[in-house]
Write a structure and sequence with these properties.
The protein is α+β, with helices and mostly antiparallel strands. Helices cover 26% and strands 30% of the residues. The strands form twelve sheets. Strands 32-33-34-35-44-41-40-37-38 form a nine-stranded antiparallel β-sheet, with helices on one face. The chain has a six-stranded antiparallel β-sheet with strand order 3-2-5-10-7-8. It has a six-stranded antiparallel β-sheet with strand order 31-30-36-43-42-39, with no helix packed on it. The termini are far apart. The model has no long low-confidence stretch (mean pLDDT 97). It binds zinc ion (ZN). The site of zinc ion has 4 residues, from loops.
């Protein structure tokens, strides 16, 4: 037989495009359109509905950036359409090539009931089926003119990302505004041909099935009268029925599809717009669930449910009903799909506490899966947190974005730093916006790396971010692939159903140990420094507020601010969303975040101040108390308590050196700051050990050009290191000495920026404090602070949640080399047996560690560099411009326990309060420094019980006693949600009024302590 394959394939494409798809709506009449544009921010629905309309025509421009217009369409269904299906087609000026990221609408009936969303690939509104004829149509559309930020020339700087700079040029032109007849038979034919045509393209040319499909398609095309598609569509469909009925082969890959819309809680739009995006998409999805009995939809992020509840109660009522029916499925159990690299131990725990509790309270649902399709890497601390939250599975898709190395598994056990293993799935469809294209389904089956031993994968299906979620076309295509020869099978299944099947079929999956590092978006550890500082400051203040308010409540009977802390926590958790904390949102989002963090800090400072004053007694008492919120004692003040402190003796000195610069001494360290203001030497007096590598100087600021190939705020590409400028020019260098400290102040200028650094030694502290103030006005530059250390080691430790993890200092493998920028929380630690050094940081997360071997003595220099600032121009063209303050410290002679202690210290300054009390005894005390208290708070159930979370911080085993300053009645191990839990692997026993703890490396334990009354 002659090979006419490409001829038939080309014929299919043209006939579908030019004849069959247009015939879905064979007849139409125009609607009358009126518009009212809200003068500023969005208005309440009633106001929008009532506002007077001005006429507007198709082709007219509307929509200043970020504006909201209320559009009314009216019309009459022609009598001739009686008995047919009629829809309104409302095209706000969509670019259908982009599923979201542009204008959107929410359709209301005249009484204010929301109907569904309008999105680029979802422009229809069902009017009647069958229509009576003569019916009046009146619909209102709340249309949001969200500007396109990331378009066909991506990553170009734009001022559109903030309403303050976006201008008022209309962004869209009204396109089709019609009433039309919907021909369902033609619509079904389109789906038949798409499914079979797309499947055909994926099948081997040598295989019979491909040719069988080709011949069936050819017969269907022959059956169509191109002048009467609507009259012949049924005949064409009957030609395809046979090939559509052929069942899948028994070994076919099995895809669990779940309706989904990945809606970023803020990104290229502000938070307030996400509230509306979620409402539109959810209105679409509850409507689709009513139309399609097999369809299931899932939505993560408790915050997004809470927004609908607050702002669109009518939509929320539909959500609640669909959740109760088991068809709208809350996914995951977090407040938002947060970043996981940067949130602190407690914040990461609270993401699950607040997410799971919301689903439990609202729906009685507790999920077993963590749902983080898009998050930029996963820390080694996360598995234990997931397990302690009462979950056991993880889904993410993001690691498929890694630039260099292909992850070897799609389904596996992920083992964290403490040994907890979590059953994890990476959907091999490689997208969280599956649209049921044949190419996607075939890719999932081909790509699945666990073939032969496993056969299930998951496909999150639908358009996110303003795309409106799953479309009826996707549902129609999934139905055809339910059991179709040549295709993977597709079934709508809940995430839990998928995980149960996947786990059951794969009893011994492969294991991946340690972090799931994303080899991309590494600069999200640095971009938008003020957002990151706001987060870290809030986390620290929340620790203090919970500690001191608990203490004041149990000691003095002060009211515990349950509601206020709950609200503040949820705000902090929201801002850990994976485009806010990482710094990858538009200027508007980060400008608002800075203001929000400032307001939270004000509230928390007030709570802390009031609680401490209650504990210290009347200020008129005149006795100064030092409060210590850190988990370790500090200059005779117990951890979690307060005491008066004698001022240390004047042992610090700053001596000018004849060759320029200064020598600082405090009896513990001798620090040489040279004439260029760089640290030439740091000697630990007790051991005589030099910290700085010979021939190098520490605290060297280095400036790199930083223009990644794409994703400016997200990415730093490896070639940035090829060019570097050392900032050694000095404007001024001065020394200063007080009774308890000695410091050197260095001022520099470079480019359009200035920097002032203060290096300080304090009495009794084996630590160099480094305060940096940068007035930053650079463009596309990366600022690092380098510490070349005389340490020979193959690995270094970086703090993460509830412990630390090790990364290599070398680049032996492509996996090691790809980690050229990584995350730490409060410390990085390096050591040789017997001697180590820690670098601690108050608010930065990005860093890199490299090694060189010196020519002159053959020794190894290990250089740690903290990442301070970047200056990308997309999506915020003025990222990080302005004044910034950082605090770091260098701690020579530090063991890992010292690194932990100094890490807490740098974020939790001593607070001095004047009162009458001599001391404030801590509520709880632990007698082993490796057992670190990460939270002291009152139980969320308001029982008055005290919740104390403790973890082993050294990476070894620790045994100790936890004692209380109140009569202890009982101690119950709990999960993160403060429910009794028997999953603790270590020992927790109560004896003699104290709790004996024996914890394994990095193990965390949550205790509910009750007092004897
Ligand atoms: Zn995302």
């Amino acid at each position: 037989m002659h090979d006419d394959r490409t001829l038939v394939e080309s014929r299919l494409k043209r006939v579908l495009d030019e004849r069959i798809r247009p015939a879905v709506y064979p007849e139409s009449v125009p609607l009358e359109v009126g518009i009212w544009t809200a003068p500023g921010e969005p208005v309440p629905v009633a106001e929008g509905l009532a506002a007077p309309r001005a006429p507007i025509a198709v082709g007219d421009a509307w929509g200043a950036p970020w504006g909201t217009s209320w559009i009314t369409v009216t019309g009459t269904v022609p009598e001739a359409w009686a008995g047919r299906t009629v829809e309104a087609l409302i095209d706000l000026g969509f670019d259908a090539n982009m599923p979201g990221f542009q204008c959107e609408g929410l359709v209301y009936r005249p009484d204010g009931t929301p109907v569904k969303g309008l999105n680029p690939q979802n422009q229809w509104v069902r009017i009647a089926a069958p229509a009576a004829g003569g019916e009046q149509v009146l619909l209102h559309v709340e249309a949001a003119a969200n500007p396109v930020i990331l378009d066909y020339h991506p990553f170009l700087p734009t001022e559109l990302g903030d309403k303050e700079t976006a201008g008022d040029r209309p962004q869209y032109k009204l396109a089709r505004m019609d009433l039309a007849v919907f021909d369902e038979t033609v619509w079904q034919l389109v789906l038949d041909l798409e499914v079979l045509g797309e499947l055909m393209a994926e099948l081997p040319v040598e295989g019979a099935r491909r040719w069988q499909l080709l011949r069936a398609i050819e017969r269907a095309l022959d059956a169509i009268d191109l002048q009467d598609v609507n009259g012949t569509a049924a005949q064409a469909r009957s030609e395809l029925a046979g090939v559509l009925a052929a069942p899948a082969v028994p070994s076919a890959h099995r895809i669990s599809a779940i309706g989904h819309a990945h809606i970023d809680s803020a990104w290229l739009w502000p938070l307030r717009e996400t509230v509306r995006k979620v409402a539109r998409t959810t209105a679409n999805m509850t409507a689709l669930l009513e139309d399609e009995p097999d369809f299931l939809y899932t939505m993560s992020q408790a915050q997004q449910f809470a927004w609908i509840k607050e702002h669109r109660p009518e939509v929320y009522a539909r959500v609640r009903k669909a959740v109760a029916e088991g068809r709208f499925v809350p996914a995951g159990g977090m407040w938002v799909e947060s970043d996981t690299n940067m949130p602190s131990s407690e914040a990461m725990a609270r993401q699950f506490v607040h997410g799971k509790r919301f689903f439990l309270d609202e729906f009685g649902v507790e999920n077993q899966e963590a749902w983080l399709p898009d998050t930029f890497g996963f820390t080694g601390g996360l598995p234990q947190i997931i397990r302690n939250a009462g979950s056991k599975w993880l889904l993410t898709q993001k690691i498929s974005w890694s630039q260099v190395n292909r992850f070897p598994h799609h389904t596996f056990l992920w083992e964290g730093i403490d040994g907890t293993r979590i059953f994890t799935h990476f959907p091999p469809v490689d997208t969280y916006n599956c649209s049921m294209k044949g190419s996607e389904i075939a890719h999932a089956a081909r790509n699945f790396k666990d073939k032969g031993v496993a056969r299930h994968s998951l496909a999150p299906t639908g358009w996110g971010d303003g795309g409106g979620g799953t479309t009826r076309e996707m549902v129609g295509k999934a139905a055809r692939m339910n059991d179709l020869e040549g295709s993977a099978t597709v079934r709508w299944e809940k995430p839990a159903e998928f995980f149960a099947k996947a786990e059951a079929e794969y009893p011994n999956p492969p294991v991946w140990v340690g972090e799931l590092y994303l080899e991309l978006h590494r600069a999200t550890l640095t971009s938008q420094a003020k957002t990151k500082q706001g987060n870290r400051r809030s986390e620290n203040l929340l620790r203090e507020a919970e500690l001191w308010c608990s203490t004041a409540t149990l000691r003095n009977g002060a009211a515990y601010p349950y509601e206020q802390l709950d609200r503040i926590w949820k705000t902090v958790l929201l801002h850990q969303f994976h485009d806010i904390l990482p710094g990858s949102s538009i200027a508007w989002v980060h400008r608002e975040a800075e203001a929000t963090y400032a307001a939270l800090a004000g509230e928390l400072e007030e709570l802390i101040g009031a609680a401490q004053q209650a504990l210290a007694g009347e200020a008129s008492g005149g006795r100064e108390l030092v409060f210590n919120a850190a988990p370790h004692p500090r200059s005779s003040v117990p951890a979690g308590g307060a005491a008066s402190v004698a001022v240390a003796g004047p042992v610090c000195e700053a001596v000018e050196r004849p060759e320029g610069g200064f020598t600082l001494r405090n009896g513990l360290l001798e620090v040489v700051v040279d004439a260029e203001g760089l640290i030439a030497s740091v000697v630990e007096v007790a051991s005589g050990r030099e910290t700085v590598a010979p021939g190098s100087r520490a605290n060297l600021l280095q400036l790199h050009p930083d223009f990644p190939n794409m994703w400016d705020a997200w990415d730093v590409d490896q070639f940035y290191r090829n060019t570097v400028t050392d900032l050694t020019g000095v404007d001024a260098i001065t020394a200063d000495r007080a009774a308890d400290r000695a410091s050197v102040r260095i001022a520099r200028s470079f480019g359009s920026s200035t920097v002032v650094q203060t290096l300080t030694l304090r009495a009794g502290e084996q630590r160099v404090d480094i305060d940096t103030e940068v007035d930053w006005h650079e463009t596309e530059k990366f600022l690092k602070a380098a510490f070349p250390l005389d340490v020979h080691t193959e690995r270094y430790a970086a703090e993460t949640q509830f412990g630390h993890l090790y990364r290599p200092t070398h680049t032996n493998t492509s996996w090691d080399a790809a980690k050229f920028e990584a995350c730490n929380h409060r410390f990085v630690h390096l050591d040789e047996p017997g001697w180590g050094v820690a670098l601690v940081t108050a608010s930065t997360y990005g860093h890199d560690v490299t090694r060189t071997v010196r020519d002159h003595d053959g020794g190894t220099t290990t250089t740690v560099r903290f990442s301070l600032l970047r200056a990308p121009r997309f999506p915020d063209p003025k990222t990080d411009q302005g004044l910034h303050r950082f605090r770091h410290a260098l701690v020579p002679g530090a063991a890992i326990g010292d690194a932990v202690r100094e890490g807490y210290r740098i974020g939790l300054p001593e607070r001095r309060v004047t009162g009458t009390a001599e001391r404030v005894a801590p509520l709880v005390a632990v007698d082993d420094d490796a057992l670190v208290v990460s939270a002291v708070k009152l139980a969320d159930d308001r029982s008055g019980d005290l919740i104390v979370r403790v973890y082993e911080a050294g990476g070894g085993r620790a045994t100790g006693r936890l004692t209380t300053s109140f009569p202890l009645a009982g101690a119950v191990p709990c999960d993160l949600l403060e429910r009794p839990w028997d999953g603790t692997r270590g020992e927790v026993t109560v004896a003699d009024g104290a709790v004996r703890l024996a914890l394994r490396p990095f193990e965390l334990v949550t205790l509910r302590l009750s007092a004897t009354v």
